[in-house]
Amino acid sequence: MGTLTLSASAHLWEQFLVGALDGEQTAVPEVPPILSRWQRSRALGAPCTGLPHEGPSVGGAALVERRARLEPVWHEVRDILDVLAAAPLPSGRVALLADREGVILATRSSGGSFGGHADDVRLVAGACWDEGSRGTNAIGTALAESSSVAVVGPAHYAQRHHGLVCYAAPVRDAFGELVGVLDVTGPASGADPLVLVAVASIAHSAEARLREVAWARVASAVRGGLEARLSREDGPVLLIEAPGRVRRLNGAARTVMRLSPGSHGELSSGRVLGLSWAALKDAALRGHSLEARQPSTGARWRVQVEAVGEGDVALAVLVRLEPWLTRAVAKRLPVAEEVGPEGGAWEVLKGSDAQHRAMLKEAARFAPTMLPVLLLSETGTGKELLARAVHAASSVASGPFVAVNCGALSPTLLESELFGHSAGAFTGARAGGAEGKLAAADGGTLFLDELAEMPAALQVLLLRVLEDGGYSRVGESHVRHSRFRLIGATCRDLDAAVRAGTFRSDLYYRLQGVMLRLPPLRERDDLAMLAQDLLGQLALDGGHPASTLSPAALARLKSHGWPGNVRELKTVLRLALVRAGGARVVDVAALPPELGLGPVSLAREPVMARGETASPKGLRELEAQAVREALERSGGNMARAARRLGVARSTLYRMVERLGLVLPPRA
Questions:
Q1: What's the pLDDT score for residue 610?
Q2: Residue 646 near residue 564 (C-beta atoms within 8 A)
Q3: Locate the Sigma-54 factor interaction domain: which residues (predicted)?
Q4: For residue 613, pLDDT beyond 50
Q5: By the 8 A CB rule, do 245 and 210 touch?
């Protein structure tokens, strides 16, 4: 489709008429582009000197009927024709709309002397300007080649039109069918290539508007169903509309096609599948499957196509890609290995540890899908950073990222925070009500931290949302809908919680899409590198001079158990930078005195492998012991004890309450 400008000299036209160019295609390496168009016009029997009479014309009821068929297009372009006709030339221009047979339906003139000439050459309503009637001209050639075209002066096949310059662009309806042509014609002396750009742009805008109007006619339930299917499909799926434009595609399709985020607005079915809109539409209406081959990579798929539209016409097609090769062969393809956690949001998850890198690679592989993600990791390992990285690499990256800490709120407040509430739903409710986090996450990612702390009643409500997107605000019965990608996180053993009856098994199985475990710091072999990197970043953020850790300081760091993981390491390094007083080398003296000497053995209700047994009572006792030790060493200072444990102070208060501990008097 593109644009084309055809020009020629009067001498070249005369040579063609006398047959001097009939052998040019074999004798001359570079054949003038106009030559094949003139030859086509001659084959159609068009008169080369112009019509001695008015030529084919349509009038009366037939013209009214043609105008009625093109009413939707006329509605979109009629106000623009006056703008197109306007020109800073004394002679003026004429803008017009013709149908798919080249019959002019309506014209607009800017006035000037060209208006009379336009009538003489029959640029008037009812006149036919297809190539069979008038030879090469912008209207007829745009129809013949389905492309925007400019025909300048003697490039016109008919001598009578050598004084014209014409610019035309085809207009297609919402189903991809060519229905008309938008044209601007003026004197050849006023030729301006920017006019072709303007005409083509307006034609494309009209097409886009026709598509939007057609989509608006499709029932909202159908549109919602399409969006839901795109978001829920694990395999590659594309929604392609006329005339082959990729309207939507899910993350799996973007991954297998190796497309960058945000690029679908520039994609066509021909570019990504090597298939035309006509082929896809025909297969959808006939119920046939196709073979597709991506031109840029050579990748092959079997294509299943489903029509979306009204009756027996397709407004768009839903395209599913299936592997062309067998599963055994497909597993050997290196596509998955090429998806790596490099750059962007992944950069904050520093580390060279093999276990850590393998986890990031797995996260990057599943990030483009809409599968739920469950992060099973100890506190302080960077679960929210990982959740944000997955969101940034997902198909909903342009949507919101909404985080909720399920353990930081009481059950009543958590329900209101998640689902929202109506006005007057409870004492203290906002006067206008509140939308809630589910509404805020619509079209994006919802991150539920400390998921295991969610009360059983809310687990039931969340399960319903995950099933069909439906929920109601607190205090109202109206059902609302939200579509989002869920990422949950917990430091608890959910298998044990399910066995103990504190976490619903059906919700647990619903969340088991992708399970990722960030290794605790004590299991990583890149502590030295990580500490040096963090020290440099913290120094930069805090305005401290650039520093490095001494070998002795690194040895002390390695001897510590790091119950608070990376969060605790950051706290220790911040304190060390202050104690070092600007020294270029941070030594052992700048580290907390107790670090590595008596490591706090915080009972991690940790993430254990399935099948691994542990006594809930024993874990509770170990956790209580760790909390008591931290409080005793901190002299009853909750903030200091929380730092030692690597948890938030609010979390420590909840731990004390849950474990039934008595706070010691503060020293």
A1: 37
A2: yes
A3: 349-578
A4: no
A5: no
Contact of 602 with 631, CB cutoff 8 Å? no
Q: In whole angstroms, give the CA distance from residue 573 to residue 4.
A: 65
Q: What is the pTM of this model?
A: 0.44
In the structure encoding, which two tokens stand for residue 370, read together?
């809409």
Query: Residue 171 forms beta bridges with which residues?
Result: 180
Q: What does the alpha-carbon distance between residue 557 and residue 551 come to, in Å, rounded to a whole number?
A: 10
How far apart CA 564 and CA 652 sit, in angstroms, is 12
Grouping H, G, I as helix, E, B as strand and the rest as coil, residue 433 is coil
Residues 6+ apart with CB under 8 A from 79: none
Tokens linked to 539: 């120094």
Q: Which two tokens stand for residue 634?
A: 């901190």
Give yes or no for a contact between 659 and 630, defined as CB atoms under 8 angstroms apart.
no
Residue type, 437: K
- What is the distance between the alpha carbons of residues 249 and 240, in angstroms, rounded to a whole number? 9
Round to whole Å and give the CA distance between 540 and 549: 15
d(CA 271, CA 294): 7
> What DSSP character marks residue 546?
P
Which H or E run includes 319? strand 316-323
Please enumerate, as own/partner, the contacts of 463-471 that have beta carbons within 8 Å and a separation of 24 or more: 463/504, 463/506, 463/507, 463/510, 465/438, 466/372, 466/507, 466/510, 466/511, 467/510, 469/228, 471/419, 471/438
Rounded to whole angstroms, how far apart are CA atoms 421 and 419?
A: 7
Q: Please tell me the distance from the alpha carbon of residue 548 to that of residue 26, in angstroms, as a whole number.
A: 75
Two tokens, residue 222: 């159908």
Alpha-carbon separation of residue 622 from 415, 563, 606, 632, 658 (angstroms): 32, 13, 12, 15, 14
Please name every residue paired with 376 in a beta bridge, in sequence order, or none if there are none. 490
Q: Pick the most confident of 25-34, 292-301, 302-311, 342-351.
A: 292-301
Structure tokens at 576: 């060390």
3-class DSSP assignment, residue 173: coil
Give the SS3 label for residue 447: strand
Taking a C-beta distance cutoff of 8 angstroms, is the pair 620, 601 a contact? no
C-alpha–C-alpha distance, residues 394 and 367, integer Å: 5
Question: What distance in Å separates the CA atoms of residue 181 and residue 179, rounded to the nearest whole number?
Answer: 7
Please say if the pLDDT value at position 98 is more than 60. Answer: yes
Query: For 115-268, where are the E strands, in sequence order?
Result: 148-152, 164-172, 178-187, 237-241, 245-249
In 37-113 the beta strands, taken as DSSP E runs, fall at: 94-99, 104-109
In angstroms, rounded to a whole number, what is the distance separating the alpha carbons of residues 179 and 183? 14
Structure tokens at 470: 């439906």
**How does pLDDT run across 386-398, given as a tens digit for each residue?**
999 999 888 788 7
- H/E stretch holding 86 reads none
Measured on CA atoms in the order 607, 612, 617, 623, is the torsion positive or negative? negative
Distance of CA 397 to the CA centre of its chain: 7
In this predicted structure, what is the pLDDT of residue 102? 93
3-class DSSP state for residue 176? coil
Using DSSP's 3-state secondary structure scheme, residue 272 falls into helix
What's the one-letter identity of residue 26?
A: T
DSSP string, 300-360: EEEEEEEEESSTTS-SEEEEEEEESS-HHHHTTSTTGGG----SGGGGGS----HHHHHHH
Q: Omega into 563 within 30° of 0, i.e. cis?
A: no
Distance, C-alpha 249 to centroid of its chain: 8
Q: How many CB atoms lie within 10 A of CB 555?
A: 13
- Other CB atoms within a 10 A radius of the CB of residue 651 amount to 19
Please say whether the beta carbons of 87 and 94 come within 8 A: no
Mean pLDDT of the chain: 79
